[in-house]
Sequence to fold (151 residues):
Amino acid sequence: MSDTHDDTHATGKALEIAKARDCRMIIHAGDLCSPFIARSLRETGIPAYCVFGNNDGDKIHLAQTVDIKPSPRHIEAEGTSIVVFHEPFINDYIDPERVDILIFGHTHKLMIDERTPMKIINPGTVSGVLVKVKSFVIFETETGKAEVIEL
Fold:
């Protein structure tokens, strides 16, 4: 998920869906904005890995509340190599032979693409800011399938 922008209602709904679907981890591609969202992520009990976005204000409190790092963030999960950014400015330079999934946010534009064999995912925005659809993506590492969830 990405760009929750303090929308606690939509984020809560997204996290309920993630729990109901037995998601094993949450990746947040930036712009949580405040510790309210970080606390919601922590309280799910699902491991959450986040990157700072350009609108994240209280970085110290965010870092004390949730596992959040500057971009790029590299995550190894279930034999899958994931790199997470907020802004997409260097996406073209990521080697698709070394990364299985590239996740980014910032644009609020939902996108699922591929630069073979690497999957590229922008989950859109949970908050719906600047777009009409509130969304996030559930990715199955076993099947390589990405499912768009609209809120």
